[in-house]
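hiii, so i know i said id send this last week but things got crazy w the move. better late than never?? heres the sequnce for the chain we talked about at the cafe, plus the structure i predicted for it. fair warning i was half asleep when i ran it
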Amino acid sequence: MVLHKSSRLTSFWQLQALGWVCFYIWSLLGSFPDLLRSSGAFRQDTVVVGLLFLGSCIIHPVCRWLLRRYPSWIAFELRAFAASVTIGAAVAFVYELTIRGIHNLNVVDLAENSANFPFLLFSWSSLYFSIKQWHTSSQERERLLRAEAEVREARLQALRYQLNPHFLFNSLNAVSTLVLDGEAAAATKMLSQIGDFLRTSLNGQSALEAPLSQEMAFTEQYIAIEKTRLGDRLQVKLTVSPDTLDAMVPGMLLQPLVENAVRHGVASIAEGGKIAIESGLHEGRLRIIVRNSGRQGPGNQGEGENGIGKRNISERLQTLYGNDHRFWLEWPESGGCAVIVELPIRRLGPQEVSTC
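okay and structure toks below
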């Protein structure tokens, strides 16, 4: 706290010194012809700037007190003007005493300076405190933006943390089924794949966005687990455009979509089915489609168990992109379901590419 006050005081004195030195130089240049004729003009300019400098030092704490007591800018300005008139008139009187003495006071000059000096002090205080208020408002806006970003990140992480327990619960159920069916080798293989999948997931949990290539590799780990469980009943087709591999997408975007497609479009059907994952550029935006060949009609596709699937992804997309995205489901007449996501293009930076 002491350091904060010290830096604020230094900033005030820097502005104070710079402002009044510039004003002093400007005054000397303005009265340059008089300076050549008489040395008294130099003395007058020096005295008036010195007294105004002292007046500004007096009005500064007064204005600070007024600003704390009257947060409204109009109320502050009115009272700052009254303070400037009082202190400016006092400066004008001291100036006349210094230059002419008590017995030679010039009432006309005193009245003129009593009008000019308050104007200078009020202009100085208004300028300084306007800059200070703008700086304070900027800092407050930055603080609010940082707080909003932290809340946003915490919300996204919380949504992501919903997915791993959800996936783990379903996967362990599948392992249990394999064990009960006497397929110990398949169950052992699946447990190993689940361990690799969760390890990858935990290692990348801090990233809110990831390149599509990384999401595809992650999703293929999940598909390998499902292939172990479903065998030939699950057919997968990948059509991923090379132009989209470095596009940034929300972390763990594809896996829940594929999981829902497998559960509702393949696993629930005795003969199994097909999953297709496509990506490409559509009107300058990234489009990702996850299709399955399930039964005709909406059914309950797109909603995972406990309502996590579609709702979780929708909330994360809204938090990350606001209204600058599209996310919808289609049910072709031939059957199955297609989940389409459209996102703005955000490319992976050069440094990130080299480290991938």
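btw Confidence is low (pLDDT under 50) at residues 1-10, 302-307, 351-356. thought thatd interest u
miss u guys!!
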